[in-house]
Design goal:
Blueprint lengths: L17 H18 L3 H25 L3 H25 L3 H21 L7 H23 L3 H28 L6 H28 L6 H19 L1
Keywords: Membrane, Transmembrane, Transmembrane helix
Length: about 240
Amino acid sequence: MSGDGISGVDGITRHPTRVSSLVAVCAAVLAIALLGTTSAQRLALGVDVAGIAVLALGGAAWHRGHRVVGGLVALAGVGLSLASVGVVVVRAETVSQRVEIAPGLLGPLLVACGVVPVWKRFSRTFVSLGAAFVVLTICLSGLVRGAEMLPLLGAFAATVVAWDAGEQAINLGEQLGNEARTWPVEVGHSGATAVYGCVAVAAAVGFHDLDVTGVPLVGLFALFGAAVLLLVGLYN
């Protein structure tokens, strides 16, 4: 667990902001929920979410100065979240159900580790790795199970929101601290990202339904990826 994040000069707590942190984790969970269609996968995701909640409680206790209790609770949360992978491995009926969702269960946990933060120096790395694991699961769902286009694109859009919100939480926390009144900016920014993602998904689905040029699903994902890259470019 990282240090207390207090600036030595102005006394501002430089932790990721709460609203964007919550949006980031929820969006990552939503991405996996769109792909988890079996009872075993949903149970595993529930265990994952429970572990993340325990991690957040431990992190809050740690940052309030209760280092021993907070650290132990946070470790218990990480352990519970990691156990979700074991749940899907044991309870899933087929190998494909295990393979497609197992990496993605690490995604929300890593995003949470980035915004708690577990290790402040690597907050952005955790968020990026979390998004990468979710994208890996999206790809596996398409390749291994042949998931439908709409859940795949929706999961991609949710992953972009998760990454963007995580970055915003860290940036605002570093600049203004997590006690500043930043929630209007956070809600507006994440809302705009979500709307952009929905428009991109709708455009890709509409283009596919036209079936004028016979563009394959890979081409649609390339189109959607280009839209995501444009969003990243605008973000930077």
